[in-house]
Amino acid sequence: MINMRKLDNYMTARQFAHFSEIASSGSLNKAAENLGQTQSSLTRSLKQLEESVGAKLMERGPKGAVVTPEGAIMLECFRRVSLETRLALQAIENTTEAQKLMIRVGAAPSFGLTILPKVMEEFRTNFQETRFQIHHATPSAMLGSVESGEIDIYLGPVLETNIAVGITTELLAAIPSEIYARKDHPLAKKARVSSADLLEHRWVSLLSSLDISLPGNWRDKLSNFAYQNGLPPPSVDFETTSVIGALNIVSSGGYLVCLSQLLSDEAERRDLVALSVQEPITKHMSGIVYRSPIIRDKRLKQFLEILSRVSLAAGS
What we know:
Elements lengths: L3 H7 L2 H13 L2 H8 L3 H15 L4 E4 L2 E4 L1 H28 L5 E6 L1 H6 L1 H8 L7 E5 L3 H10 L4 E5 L9 E16 L12 H4 L3 E5 L11 H11 L6 E6 L2 H10 L3 E5 L3 H6 L2 E3 L8 E9 L6 H18 L1
Parallel strand pairs: 3-4, 3-5, 7-8, 7-9
Antiparallel strand pairs: 1-2, 5-11, 6-9, 6-10, 6-11
Helix pairs in contact: 2-3, 2-4, 3-4, 7-13
């Protein structure tokens, strides 16, 4: 049985940091160089930590220092403690800086353009001192940033499962895509547009994400239809990471683009219309992803409630 008093007395953050650096570097020599310590001091620190835990945390071999299964458990513990400590320090900083709250939000572009401005405007009626950081990137990058603590909340397409322990995912609604074109496009006046019709025209596309289902996967859907019916695949002239850029290109020429239904107002501002397709080519499940501890802050909890309500209204 582990002596808990021994743990309290001898397990220190410094020993954890030394152990983590040795594991990351793969050798005591490299870790000592990185930390500006002597190899003997790191060896002593690691030995003290192993004695406190009562288990071997690393094995030294011809290829350097290798983490044992017990060591892997300790590393995961250290990662979580470090992350929670960083979040706590940030919360303290927000409290001491004139009680200002910094909310770091990551959003898929269509959500950032349409939903976030409404949420922030409503929230700031009660919390005028709140500051915001808005981040835009691929859904996979944003989900990873929530897990690492770099952002507090993500809004956009999600997988239907939590991505890690301590992460909460609230599913909202399945958002269908639309196919937008200029009003003078040959398909704009057609009462019912088929997949075969779509293959006859040229496209603008978002660069596809490979790890989550997005409207960008319309190319796979149409390509499969084309293959099954002996037709040529969709012809894409432009690819872009910007939804606004995609809409601007379509408004300047006779192209088609498949984007979220949330962007219908942005499309209308550019005199674009949604084609009358037989059914949406794609739908993506939207949701809110956040680190579970943030709801302890009543202001962040209220922000999440507003975010959920406005997002559901937009998707209905």
